[in-house]
Inverse folding.
């Protein structure tokens, strides 16, 4: 059986777990999210997207 989850959902669960169980403060999670949002509007965005797609491909076992 194949289950498909959006990456943002998985990252949201990780963030929630970090806040709930690891004691990460909510403001720290918000700052990290804002940093990622602003980073996505820089020249580094294509490299980050490519690296993320490659990493997800490795995890899923889809090597092209």
């Amino acid at each position: 059986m194949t289950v498909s989850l959006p990456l943002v959902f998985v990252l949201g669960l990780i963030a929630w777990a970090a806040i709930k169980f690891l004691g990460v403060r909510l403001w720290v999670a918000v700052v990290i999210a804002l940093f990622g949002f602003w980073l996505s509007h820089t020249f580094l965005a294509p490299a980050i997207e490519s690296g993320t797609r490659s990493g997800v491909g490795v995890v899923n076992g889809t090597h092209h």
Remarks:
- Helices lie at 7-21, 26-39, 45-60.
- The chain has a mean pLDDT of 86.
- The chain is about 70% helix and 0% strand.
